[in-house]
Design goal:
There is one protein chain. By secondary structure, the chain is α/β, with parallel strands linked by helices. About 30% of the residues lie in helices and about 20% in strands. The protein is built from 16 helices and 28 strands. Strands 11, 12, 13, 14, 15, 16, 17, 18, 19, 20 and 21 form an 11-stranded mixed sheet that branches. A 9-stranded parallel sheet has the order 5-4-3-2-1-9-8-7-6. The chain is globular.
């Protein structure tokens, strides 16, 4: 059997794909043939099938009906369309729940899920896992050699709906997870500080699950670690499928992440990253951040946008051309595929109002023309992107799930949204014209000049060691806000207010406390205000003060400091600040560290490109309603149109350009 961490070479290294999630099990052969005809007409070359079809594939226990899926794969192959099979474990069939109702996912309020939804079975239930292994092995054995197949997808949006299960088997799994993590219950009590409120535990089995409490909430350490346990459980469930598929297939495996897990661990044993990104549901800025994030998980391979919508989910219409711009941005940001959910509108079920490419009667929806624009862009970009790829960035924005996102929600700020706050930070870098990567706290950090780490309550020892190396080699580190004030289990450090970050960097923190709207006078000659908690520093000889509190509270005390470290420099920020002040402060830091910036209107996105032999290009997209004149670094040629450009070019509304420089 192959190792679950083995990464087979992709079978499609030089291709770009456009396609759709497709559910042929819902339709007769005439509709299936019409679908294939329409897909070819619009230029689609890949479909994803299977991920919700367990009851069709196994209508009765152990009685598999695979001919329908095989016929569909034969048809798409005959028509030059490739396929991705998704394992169907997100929707276990009714006969399984009827026979084993105990596999149902149990909510913290006691409700046990029954048949009729999706993700309604517990990832830790051994009965569910056994049935999941069986259907996965049947599919892997039967279809691994089919010529239409180019990749596998595990399940669907793991942990995207049900988040916290407290069933009895999860309690058993929780105790084992704790034992594996801490070794002894004495170590757990020590790490969590359970002397508070008499919460000392005598055994791992005594540690309760994350259920609802009337008085405040659970011990913060418990709440944090139960989230980690739930994430690890889903990933372990996935990795079981990965091992089975790899025993039969050399094709690459991925998962369509909905961003509800620790994505570093999620993608660790997969061959390429993939995610569902709906710009009809999220802002274009959030979508751009997801693209820049996915690029960092498997930098040696292109990621996939496994699902996106063909239209808006809201009453407001999606601006004409926006979807075409996003499709282009996906490809030039490092995506290999854009798949739309779904192809044909469901005629029944909970998602009948979901956007689609064609209606249930086969008529094109308003999204058809937008998808056609992306299809045209794919054809033009495929030969170009065989040579070009996103240029290396000098700036990294660090995000973390287990050491950041999973911390928030308990006890720091009301309604704190880690994704929203990270998008604000990302948006500032975009506004300032910085080409950037968004990386995990476990990603390689070599090659970056400046690393930003906002909202990183716990900086683990490995990360700190790598940051120390980064600074010693001449890099810069922008620390905070909210960096270092917690230990790994959501306890408070006792060696310094900002813990090991403070001890490593050698600065001195005087206070850390709630303090909304305190005025700050920044050294650069501008004013701002704190938001949420504020930190007060006690400058030491050689420290540069970045700003001081100018009101009566903490008057003239240091809000932020900067100091040399090795050959590099750290900038320690004292609080979240208003966006205008953040932009001015970051401008000062970026200019000081000699980071090249290209400031463009926010509706214009720049993705710098490069080739192995050093040729450079700008991929540009204007998603706005107005034309914009762009100043280029050199004369060049738009590889999409063949037109030669001077050092200026005008980008009309809703258009894209790929300008290679001479």
């Amino acid at each position: 059997m192959k190792s679950e961490s083995q990464s087979p070479a992709p079978s499609f290294p030089n291709s770009l794909f456009i396609g759709s999630a497709w559910y042929p099990e819902q339709w007769d052969k005439a509709v299936i043939e019409e679908d294939i005809h329409l897909m070819r007409k619009i230029g689609m070359n890949v479909v994803r099938v299977g991920e919700f079809s367990w009851s069709t594939l196994e209508p009765k226990e152990g009685k598999y009906q695979l001919d329908g899926l095989r016929e569909v794969l034969d048809l798409v192959h005959a028509n030059g369309i490739r396929a991705v099979i998704g394992t169907p474990t997100a929707t276990p069939p009714g006969w399984l729940l009827k026979k084993h109702p105990e596999i149902g996912f149990q909510e913290p309020d006691g409700y046990v899920h029954r048949h009729g939804a999706r993700q309604h079975a517990c990832y830790n239930n051994p009965i569910f896992r056994e049935y999941g292994r069986k259907i996965t092995e049947v599919l892997a054995r039967e279809f691994s050699k089919h010529p239409a197949l180019i990749a596998w997808q595990t399940d669907n949006e793991l942990r995207g709906h049900q988040k916290i299960c407290v069933c009895p088997l999860c309690h058993i799994g929780w105790a084992k997870w704790l034992k594996d993590r801490y070794g002894s219950v004495e170590e757990l009590n020590k790490a969590w500080g359970t002397a508070v409120w008499s919460e000392h535990y005598d055994s791992f089995e005594d540690v309760p699950q994350h259920y609802r409490l009337d008085c405040w909430s659970h011990h913060f350490s418990l709440a944090l670690n139960y989230k980690r346990f739930m994430s690890d459980s889903a990933i372990d469930f996935q990795n079981e499928q990965v091992r089975i598929i790899r025993a039969h297939s050399d094709l690459p495996i991925t998962h369509n992440s909905e961003d509800s897990l620790d994505e570093w661990d999620l993608f660790k044993n997969l061959d390429f990253a993939a995610a569902d990104i709906y710009i009809g549901y999220m802002s274009l800025m959030s979508a751009r951040m997801r693209l820049d994030t996915l690029r960092s998980f498997k930098p040696e391979r292109r990621f996939w946008v496994m699902e996106t919508g063909s239209d808006s989910f809201n009453a407001d219409r999606m601006p004409v051309g926006l979807l075409g711009c996003f499709g282009f941005l996906g490809y030039v940001s490092g995506s290999q595929a854009a798949l739309y959910w779904c192809w044909r509108q469901h005629r029944s079920g909970i998602e009948i109002q979901h956007v689609s490419v064609v209606y249930s009667n086969g008529q094109p929806t308003p999204g058809w023309e937008e998808v056609a624009r992306v299809s045209e862009a794919r054809q033009k970009l495929e030969p170009i992107l065989r040579d070009y790829s996103p240029a290396p960035a000098k700036v990294a924005l660090v995000r973390s799930e287990s050491n950041a996102r999973f911390f928030f929600g308990e006890g720091l700020e009301a309604n704190f949204s880690y994704p929203a706050k990270m998008t604000d930070q990302y948006g500032t870098l975009v506004e300032l014209g910085v080409w950037r990567d968004v990386v995990a706290d476990r990603s390689p950090l070599e090659g970056y000049k400046i690393i930003f780490t906002p909202y990183l309550p716990y900086a683990n020892p490995d990360f700190l060691e790598r940051m120390q190396k980064h600074l010693n080699q001449g890099g810069a580190w922008v620390v905070g806000p909210y960096c270092g004030y917690r230990e790994k289990d959501q306890t408070v450090p006792t060696n310094a207010i900002l813990g090991q970050v403070e001890k490593l960097l050698g600065f001195k923190t005087k206070f850390f406390c709630p303090a909304n709207d305190l005025p700050i006078s920044f050294t650069g000659g501008f004013e701002g205000k704190t938001q949420m908690h504020a930190t007060v520093f006690d400058p030491m000889p050689g420290d540069e003060v970045l700003g001081t509190y100018s009101g009566s509270t903490f008057k003239n005390s240091a809000w932020g400091i900067s100091r040399p470290f090795g050959k590099g420099r750290v900038y320690v920020l004292g609080s979240e600040i208003d966006s205008a002040s953040r932009a001015r402060l970051y401008t000062t830091i970026l200019d000081r560290e000699k980071i090249e910036r290209v400031v463009l209107p926010l509706s214009v996105t720049l993705c710098p490109q490069t080739t192995c032999d050093g040729r450079k290009a700008w991929a540009l997209s204007n998603s706005g309603e107005a034309p914009h004149e762009i100043i280029l670094p050199a004369t060049g040629r738009d590889l999409l149109t063949g037109q030669v450009t001077g050092k200026k070019t005008t980008l009309p509304p809703h258009t894209n350009a790929f300008i290679a420089f001479e």
